[in-house]
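Hey, I was hoping to borrow your eyes for a little while. No rush at all, and the record is pasted right below.
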Amino acid sequence: MMNHTALIPLLMTVFLLHACNTGASLAAPPLQPDTPQASAEQPNFDAIESIVRQGIQDGQMPGAVVVIADRDGILYRRAFGQRQVKPTAEPMTLDTVFDLASLTKPVATATSVMQLIGDGLLSPHQKVADHLPEFGKHGKDKITIADLLLHVGGLIPDNSLRDYRDGLDASWQNICDLKPIAARGEKFAYTDVGFIVLGKLVEHVSKQSLDQYAKRNVFTPLGMTETTFNPSTALKKRTAATEQRNGQWIKGEVHDPRAHLLQGVAGHAGLFSTADDLTRYGQQMLRIAKGKKSTPLSQATFKMMTRPRDVRRDSQTIGTRTYGWDHRSPYSSNRGDQLSDSAFGHGGFTGTVMWIDPDSDRVFLFLSNRLHPDGKGSINRLAGKIASIVGANASDSSNTDAKTKADP
């Protein structure tokens, strides 16, 4: 009979094989804020509380969750205010589930597209119509995957809600019937339509719906167990409320009207998640940037995704975007002014912000439901102030580390 000592190597082999097959150990869960940090110099984030509480007092949002992390642990993680004030009050908690709105674009859709590119099933310079011929009508046959990822495909920002009222097939046909508003590559126009098309592309190439593909190939391998389209009843109970629809408070259903008519799953909006799950995603991107991990993207594919590219309007460069992410563009007020040039991020209409800064080794999350209860909140500049604190502290930490190495 084999003794327990002899079993240990066998059990370790089984565990490692299981981890490789399932991705269970590819991304460790975020460390809790009371976990001792490796650095002797703790960043000073004292100013964040007053900024957030002032925003709540000014009616910019009822509450928020703020997280700052590096690739190995949590540096700051706090919940403020309320996740719901009407019809009854509910406190904001660290495990609150948020409607991410346009954070769906990079976290679900663009990450899925880039994984398919990394797997050789797509190329950024392929024409979308090569895979979806029906999309190529009215001069859209030249639009590439890269054009859509950068919002320079010449598509309208949003087509009429009427185009979505007759079901999924009719909605797609109406998108295919759209005419461009500009020649491809000539005009940066932030567009939901382009990412709805990219979501359809993921579905076509993978033979899975966008939500299924992202769950199996992005979220589950990273341990993002509470990131999903169309949340379960259990998750809905923890969801931050937004506005009213047909006299009912929206809680656990997507706020975006087009995503709602598309049954909650769309390339531009519809994803729900928690601060901890998004921290897992951000930390994994930092590890991939350093060549320490390769799921869901290889380092080469990650670099392709996050390289800044000029975008133009009226024959002038107006900023930089990456494939699926913002970099420095007219939409970057939530970036602040202290993150490094390697930082990429995105915001969501509901009041969500995420920035990932590989050179500074930082993930920054500001998650709120600024639309609740009256749709009048505004958080981008507030989030930008906090992002500046994050960047400044990261720079201070880097300078301290450099001095320590120089003067042992």
About this structure: The mean pLDDT is 90. The chain is about 35% helix and 15% strand.
